[in-house]
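Troubleshooting entry. The earlier prediction with flavin mononucleotide gave an output that would not parse, so I re-checked the input for stray whitespace and re-submitted. Clean input:
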Amino acid sequence: MSRERSNVQAPVHELIATRWSSRAFDDKRPVEPEKMVSCLEAARWTPSCYNDQPWRFLVTDRFHDRGSWGKLLACLSPGNRTWACRAPLLLLTCAAGSFTHNGRSNRWGAYDTGQAAMSLCLQATALGLATHQMGGFDAERVREAFTIPAGFEPMSVIALGYPGDAVVLDGELRRREQAPRRRKSLEEIAFLEVWGRGVTPPAWVGKRTVEKSLSGP
Ligand SMILES: Cc1cc2nc3c(=O)[nH]c(=O)nc-3n(C[C@H](O)[C@H](O)[C@H](O)COP(=O)(O)O)c2cc1C
């Protein structure tokens, strides 16, 4: 993935600019167990409310146990299945609904689990791996298929593997794979002091490159 597909309004770290949700995976190349564990380790060090660490990950690896991998694949929506079937790893993320220390409802469980998923994805990017998070799956089917305990909510499935060639994708999927990444503008999502007063980057910021941001000001 080239950073040219990310039209940043201000310099960002290369990892941020180059992570993206790939649909093309190399289905012949397994992910080394040490890389998979590094991704999980990155997730483990995510901050969380009360340090509750509400996230759980269930890893399935097509090269290790095709049965469990296939079971998770079968829970995906048909559209996701068409490309996720080439990802050697499918990871289910779950979030605890209540705090460990007092049993009260944890309304930040999903927030924290999302952060952990992003840490995992960034570590994967740093290791040359491609990731794609999916909300399009049957949560009840997953719960049953993997006996997810009550108190944990299936949140997403993450496809993970080495990047593949977009030529394996047909038509619309290939077009999306190669299209520029789109985002709302900074002004639309970040406000200065007053709700709705968009943050605008200083004029010079846009002229700096991603590379420059890596070596500091
Ligand atoms: C919680 C969540 C659920 C998502 N669900 C799906 C999905 O079911 N299918 C899909 O193709 N992409 C899914 N995506 C990927 C988003 O579409 C993608 O992140 C977004 O279009 C931005 O693209 P980028 O990640 O390449 O920057 C999901 C992403 C997140 C974070």
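This one parsed fine. The first helix runs from residue 14 to 18.
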